[in-house]
């Protein structure tokens, strides 16, 4: 994801990023999609890699939830 601009106010920071054409993890209909153990293992591994990268840059994500996880397509 490309970061285009950053705007700061006294109490907020706004990040302007490129558009991600995908969907939120929470929006998947659970009855139509099945994941294997390997799918989930890979997904969790990638999430941990991303969080580690944030930590390496002294960034803390304070709102990790399915609504904030964007996927490029309908698979993990």
Provide key terms for this protein.
two-stranded antiparallel sheet; 76 residues; single chain; 20% strand; alpha+beta
How would you portray this structure in words?
With 76 residues, this protein is of the alpha+beta class. It has one domain (22-76). The protein is 26% helix and 20% strand. The protein has one helix at 37-56; strands at 3-8, 13-17, 23-24, 70-71. The strands form two sheets. A two-stranded antiparallel sheet has the order 1-2. A two-stranded antiparallel ribbon has the order 3-4. β1 and β2 (13-17) form a beta hairpin. The model has no long low-confidence stretch (mean pLDDT 82).
**For the largest beta sheet, what order do the strands appear in spatially?**
1-2
> How would you state the average pLDDT, rounded?
82
| First-last Cα distance | 17 Å
Summing up helix and strand content along with how strands pair, one would put the structural category as alpha+beta
Tally of DSSP helical segments: 1
- Beta fraction: 15-25%
Series of secondary-structure elements, N-terminal to C-terminal: EEEHE
Describe how the helices and strands are arranged.
Blueprint (H helix, E strand, L loop, with lengths): L2 E6 L4 E5 L5 E2 L12 H20 L13 E2 L5
Antiparallel strand pairs: 1-2, 3-4
Précis, in short:
Helix content is 26%, strand content 20%. The protein has 1 helix and 4 strands. The protein has one helix spanning 37-56; strands at residues 3-8, 13-17, 23-24, 70-71.
